[in-house]
């Protein structure tokens, strides 16, 4: 039985030159290095191009919202570690709507939202 030659590896196709880290300049946190290119994905149709643009937009929005939730949770944990029960309670009341809004938009799973709220509430209840 004849031996087959190994299959040739396909090279990724890019419409633009490779990214040079020194020439890209400053960028916003959470954004990819080159916002004009959607990763290694080169769309074949107009609808795929639009889907890639929308995915980038949605990803940027989701990153910002998740960061807002983490900041709210961090504020509660900082108040708990500070030992001030009243400050912890007020920061918890501010954090709950942020967590619930992310669960409502399906950015985080509803069980994860419930777990965050439950653990924070339990830590506040355990304070003296």
Structure, briefly:
With 128 residues, this protein is mostly helical. The protein has helices spanning 46-82, 85-104, 110-125.
Q: How is this fold's topology laid out?
A:
Blueprint lengths: L45 H37 L2 H20 L5 H16 L3
Helix pairs in contact: 1-2, 1-3, 2-3
Characterise this structure.
The chain has 128 residues and is mainly alpha-helical. The chain has a domain at 46-125: Ribosomal protein S20 (Methane Monooxygenase Hydroxylase, Chain G, domain 1, Up-down Bundle), CATH 1.20.58.110. Helices cover 57% and strands 0% of the residues. It has 3 helices and no strands. It has helices at residues 46-82, 85-104, 110-125. Helix 1 (46-82) packs antiparallel against helix 2 (85-104), helix 1 runs parallel beside helix 3 and helix 2 (85-104) packs antiparallel against helix 3 (110-125). The model has no long low-confidence stretch (mean pLDDT 84).
